[in-house]
Write the structure tokens for this entry.
Amino acid sequence: MSYNGSAIMAMVGKNCVAIAADKRLGQQALTVDMDFEKVFRMTDRAFIGLSGLATDVKTVHDTLRMRVNLYRHREERVIEPKTMAHLVSHMLYERRFGPYYIEPIIAGLDKDNKPFICGTDLIGCLNFPEDFAVTGTASDNLFGICESLWEPDLDPEGLFETVSQALLNAVDRDAMSGWGA
């Protein structure tokens, strides 16, 4: 899980949600690229952040994009973030004996504008925090910084500032992530 390095976090505010990630792609301590996308827009109101092995990030993103489009055509409606979290969980659990080496974070707003965040492990075990979710090689640093900076009912500007400061400070303390955050 730490071969390519990453730092991804999602945080909840008052009727808003934020998701952020660094953009560094590395091979252990060697930096390969500083513009590697790890957060993907799946719908207008749902995003997913994928940390882990870079090849699996691309594979899971492409597969999930296909499944979200199939859902939209079959159900004739846009997938909700909670439904997408369960879709990701099932997709990962299908591969539990040969798993994708990723840890996704799903963030979005439901149809009632309520913020939703969710994290999973590599076999799809869901975790529904009420404040923030973190993953990647900088997760230990992100946990500490988010616990000290997060406040309930942050407005969008305050949430943006909190997420920005938490991510920048966490990647400064992790050699495997950062550079392009």
